[in-house]
Structures are given as structure tokens and as C-alpha cells.
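Title: Prediction job returns without error message
Component: structure pipeline
Severity: low
Priority: P3
Assignee: unassigned

Description:
Job completed but the reporter wants confirmation the result is attached to the right record. Sequence as submitted:
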Amino acid sequence: MAAGDTATGIAGPLEVLHAEPAEELIPRILALAEDHRAEGIVVGWPLNMDDTEGPQGRAARELAKQIAEACALDVRLWDERLSSFEADQALAGQLTRNKRRARQDAIAAAVILQDFLARGGPDAAPKPHDE
């Protein structure tokens, strides 16, 4: 998870959420959104390099749909390709391998959100129900 500011376009990592147990994931996402007074939620969308949506992309879209149905916030999908690579670059030379790995997902979330904010935000991103 990451939080960002639309006025500054800056995003920062919050924490890593685990998909299991599944029944706790969406309530935790919504609690963090409320804590940070979020206006919307951006879900990383793992597209294939040829811009198609594979099984992981469909799973991310389904999660985004469930989040959208559970709250009144604007939920959008955003291409997350190469975010882990950028996170690795940001963490290069810092921390031990295990600590770096633990922070990588949170840094990648911040990279995704910052890219979303820099490239037009909601106006440039599909909603999960868009096909």
C-alpha cells in the first residue's frame, strides 16, 4: 500500500498487505484509505508486455471490482509493469536482501501511485468495470 497527494503528485509507501486471509484484505485496504482520507483507490494492474490482460491482470481487476463494490471511493486500475524493477533500483545498495525484499512491494506501490498521479490520475485510468 502507498498513499499520495494529488496536489504535489508525491506518493510514499505505507505497508505491505498480504492477500491471505482474503476476508481481511478489503477491510484493511478500506481502513487505510479512511486513515489517509483517500479520495480514491488505485489497484496495480499487471498487464502482459503486449498490453493484454492475463490471469494476474484479471485477478487484479476482480479485486478492484470487489473494492469498488465495498466503498463509495473512486477505484481505478493502473499498469504496474516494471514497478518492481523501479523499486529494486530505488533500494539498490540499501538494506539486507531480506529487508529489501520485504520493502519492495510497498516501494512498488508508491511507484505505481506516483506514475498514476503524474500521468493524469483518474482521467487516464480505467475503472474496474470498464472492459
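Comment from assignee: result matches the submitted record. The first strand starts at residue 2 and ends at 5.
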